[in-house]
Recover the amino acids of this structure.
């Protein structure tokens, strides 16, 4: 009676094999989920890198903004422009709507970090403007 029954050993091996197959299928599903998450993360990283190349070039942003502000329609608009190392603040208590339209068309179609924008209509042809663009 001291011998182990071979059927018990076979049953134990079959149980162990079933358990390992279950674990393997679980690990495979985790691997597939990790691959999907990696693909998502890679896409986000590529998008962030492309956004960084567009928005991080301070020199190009400053040059483009200066080109916009030097237009003849905006020079005569009486804009108050304050420049610092971190941002430029453009304000006007009374700007013509045509000049405002021109400025907003150029600014909103460009790649600028607009941190503050307030436009308030004061009459049929005039409005007040406060615009802050960060570098």
């Amino acid at each position: 009676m001291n011998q182990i029954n071979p059927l018990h050993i076979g049953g134990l091996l079959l149980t162990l094999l079933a358990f390992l197959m279950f674990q393997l299928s679980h690990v495979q599903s985790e691997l597939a989920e990790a691959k999907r998450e990696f693909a998502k993360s890679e896409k986000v990283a590529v998008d962030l890198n492309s956004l960084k190349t567009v928005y991080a070039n301070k020199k190009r942003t400053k040059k483009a903004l200066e080109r916009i502000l030097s237009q003849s329609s905006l020079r005569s608009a009486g804009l108050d422009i304050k420049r610092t190392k971190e941002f430029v603040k453009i304000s006007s208590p009374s700007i013509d709507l045509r000049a405002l339209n021109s400025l907003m068309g150029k600014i909103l179609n460009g790649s600028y970090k607009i941190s503050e924008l307030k436009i308030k209509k004061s009459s049929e042809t005039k409005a007040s403007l406060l615009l802050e663009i960060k570098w």
